[in-house]
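Cross-posted from the bioinformatics board.
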Amino acid sequence: MSMPTATGRFGIEWQLVNGITCMLLALMLAPICMVLVISFTSGETLQFPPPALSLRWYQEVWTMLVGPDAGIGRLRESLLVSLEIAALTSLVCVLAGVPASYALVRYRFAGKTLIEELIGLPVIFPAVVLGIALLVLVSASGLDFGIFQIVVAHSIIGLPFLMRNCMAAMRGIDPMLEEAAMTLGASAPKVFREIVLPLASGGIASGAILVFILSFNEFTLSYFLYSVDVFPLSIWLFQQANTSFSPAVFAVSSLIVVVNVAAVLVVDAVIGSRGSAA
Amino acid sequence: MEQNPVLEIRNLSRTFAHGAVRAVDHIDLDVLPGEIMSILGPSGCGKTTIMRIIAGLDSPTSGEVRILGKDVAGKPPHKRNVGLVFQSLAIFPHMSVKQNVAFGLRMKGLASNLIETKVAKALELVQLSPERFAGRRPSELSGGQLQRVALARTLVTEPALVLFDEPMAALDRRLRDYMAVELRAIQKQLGIAAVYVTHDQETASMMSDRVIIMSAGKILQAGTPEEIYEAPNSRFVSDFLGDTNTLRIARVLDQADGTSLVQTDAGLAIRVANCSDIAEGAFVIFRPEQTIVHSADPGGAFEGRVVSSQFRSGLHRWQIALPGGNTLIAQSTENRLASSAGETAWVTIDSGKARIVSQ
Amino acid sequence: MTAIENPVAPLPSKEKNAPIRKPPIRLLLLPAGTLIGLLLVCALVVLRMSVGERNAEWTGWSLRAYMQLASSRNLGIIIDTIWMALLSALITTLVAFPIALFLTRTTSPIARRLVLIAILLPMIISLLVQSFGWMAILGPNGLLNQAISAATGIERPFSLLFNRAGVMLGLVQTSIPLAVLPAAAALRSIPLSLEEAANVLGANRIRTYRHIILPLAWPGMAAGAILVFGFNTGAFVVPLLLGGLKVTTIAVVIRDQMGSLSNWPLGAALSVLLILLALAVQSLNRLIVRTNVEIKG
């Protein structure tokens, strides 16, 4: 019998913690695993366990994406629009978030706390309300913003995530490096380009990837702001789920999971390598 | 022939917290071509603030800074042609040694082949072989090597004036002394004017033509290292430059032949080579090496008891308690007292070297 | 916009001849400020519409929408949403504790990393995709029902899809990361020596938990619970997909009122309510963090 110890790392208690943790993790990952498994079914339904494993639904998705009759369900169009929106959202967040992060990290000014609070506001702001209100504004303006109404909406909720990463990276830069660059003849814009940007690039990149994934997966805002011409992948998935819930939807979902996981690993590697270098 | 100073500071002040803190308080100083001037003082005395104002990283509350005769008020740091070697060295971690040294030249827009030759020359100057070190990352260098990179990076831009902000503070004593000698040699070779800010009086003495002692934003004394060490004008300056015996004067017993006989609080009578007016509450100060200890009464010496004795770096040192409460520090290259703590010893003071200061 | 820019003072250094010319702060904050400003405009839009007349949201003035909030149907949905958010916060916090304990106690860096990634995945991966997974598990032909009918022989014993239990499961699963991370941070700050001291002094493990670990970890756990509560009061995707038409939340009703039912003032009033709930949750969170900081000195 193992002895219970004060630190709770052995004995029955620790086995209990281990067991519960494993069970809960299984529960948390269950839906994702389910999607992955069903996507390989040979059957026509979402039956579990699948009658046999096959790649037929991936083949179908492939023809939907690149086949001559690529119009089915507009999957290719939706994927491209989502990628475009995600890329533009990352870009907008970087362009807006990097200078603001620098201001919040390096400047001292009145009202700084208020600004910091406001920057964090989109995280807690109910997405449904944001989506509806933006829809109201767009219709009131009577203009067609095309893809940009979703890009702007996604940028609002992506901004805090980018800035959190960017500010953490910028706080790690010794201000003396910037001063050294100044005394060596670098003007303020050059200091920013030569010193601040390269040294914060890891944080900016991981933030941008995070925002990309956030936008790519985002449903609620897209749900209110999509149109016939701008039909993101998340809306395509939702529509398929409501009409023909075939395993092809699960194959597409699995591909999304793979992309998401890859992005997490990239961010992890970027942050990890920076951590070990420091 | 009078040389025009490279740097002139006139009536410079810098206050913080809306005037509550006077970091720099009406300072005047000049740096002549080819000289190293050290600003020496304890941390918080304002020396770093002065340096940052010269570099353009901070702005004065009032007063004037002229570099090569031109007022630089409002001129940003990158247009001042002033080099600064930081205490933290501030080597750019994302650039190689070569890119670090080339940075200033690149900012000036020099042609790349010219940059190449200048960088190689600068690395050789600081004794880093360009073949071996140019491609290295800062994380692969030792503290001393980083020091050299910082120096090369600053010198390669040929600034009119180089500022050093205690760049050697992180090095150990031996390496620091070595670097100080080398830095001095390089500076003389290039004939560059420099300001060296430090709280380490030994390094300052080793490498400076002139030293300024600062405290609480004010200059207390200026002169060559030797002048200040030999003739400090206050207890503070004397203490800062080395161990000092300080005795408070109770009254003047006699003044004759250019000397004065003064009596200390503790009742010791000391003759000093100074016969001017001695203010009430003045002090006699003298250094440990300006005393001689005796194991037998030589006549006219103070008798005391040995409190402790040490031997360090070829010097013997004794703390000797005198009757009346004063304790003197005595020092000699010879082991003049074979005695241990508790025994009696006699001390005489080199009256030609003892000085009187009012504060 | 004005709300953001007004408090911004000019440059940090007030001397006219300040040698370092930093770009003006307003310029640096302008793009981000525009995005945040748009968010504030959105809040003002729903505020204005909530006090408008139906079909005259911009011109009329009326408090009818707020009175409609108190109707039994709307009140029921509000209470229901808050209750579900509370319950999910409670369950999530309880469930998060052992995981957080594991994360702080495990000596294997690989295990910690794997668990951390497993926790972060549900936060990153599309909610839609995860809801699909739940639909496959909970549906009438889903994994759960098949397993149960195989074990008991009962054909289609019950359905978890399109009812509260299914929604609750989805809410808990998607918000576990929000609760685990603050709890793990709080547990990490408890020195092991405290536990050892309690043990030496004769406390058994249960007493150690009750008197040492839980009192010190509770601010972190409370912060997590509040976060989950706030997150789930605005829940939309999970109830939409797993709740069908049977389980509605405030967010779903807002969609219905502003969409098919076109009672915009009521939808806007519910929106204002959601915003207020979110702000209240954030203030509460800050209060807990602050008192915690004060306690720790």
